[in-house]
Amino acid sequence: MDRYLEIHAAESSDASGGAAEPALTPQTKVDPRLLVAGKRRGWFVTFEGIEGSGKTTQITRLFDRLQSAEEPVLLTREPGGSPIGHRLRTLLLGTEGAGLTSLAELLLYVGDRAQHLHEIVDPALAAGTHVLCDRYLDATLAYQGFARGLDLDYIRALHTKPPLDRRPDRTILLDLDPELGLTRARTRNDDLGLARSEGRFEREALAFHRRVRDGYLSLAEADPFRVRIVAAEGHPDEIEARVADLLSDLFPVLDVEDES
Length: 260
Hints:
By secondary structure, the chain is α/β, with parallel strands linked by helices.
C-alpha cells in the first residue's frame, strides 16, 4: 500500500520546535460506543485536515508505530485507495479535473469511496485488521459541502446504505491556520512536481480553504466523541505525541511512559 513517501518529507519539514496551543481543546471524554465494541478487533481511524496540515505525515508515523508493535494495520487513503480509485484520484486532484461541476466532483468521490470500502476497508476490518485512512466522509462534507456549498443532508443521504454507511471509530482532525497550510501545500507541490497531478485544490482561493476549516470544526463540534482536534503547528514529534494521546484508548501500545 502506498505510504505517501513522496510528500512525507515535505510535510515533516516544519520543525520549528515551538509547542503550539491547540486551536480548540481536545475532548477527553470516553466515547460510550467504545464500551460496547469490545469484540471488534479492527479499529477504523481516519485523519482529516486542510491542505498542508501534515495529516499524511502523522498517519504514516502512526502506521509505522503500530506495525513496529506488531499490530495488524492497513494504511490507505481517499481518493485512490483501490486500483479503480487510483485512476479516479488523478481526475479528482489533477488539473484535468478543472472542469468538473461540484455535483460531478461529489459523485466521483462517493464512487471512489464505495469501491474503496467494498474492496479494501470492509474486508480488512472483518479480518481484524486496523484501518488508517487518509481522508474519508468528513472531507467530503467539508470540501464539497461547507466549501462548495452542496447540501449537507444530500451528501449524508448518499451515505446511508452499505457499504457507504460505514463510520470511523475515531477521527483525528489536524487543525491549522488555512493561510499557513496553503503555503505549505503549494510549496510541497512545487518542490515535488505535484502541482499538475495533485494540485487542483491548492489552486482554490484562501477563502475556500477557510470554509473547509470552518466546516471541519463544525463537524468536530457536532461529534466530539469521534472527532478529536489536534493542533497541527510545531515539531512533527510533538504533534505525533498529541495524536498518540488521543488514540491510546484504541491502541494501548501507544500509551507508554517517556523513558527519557
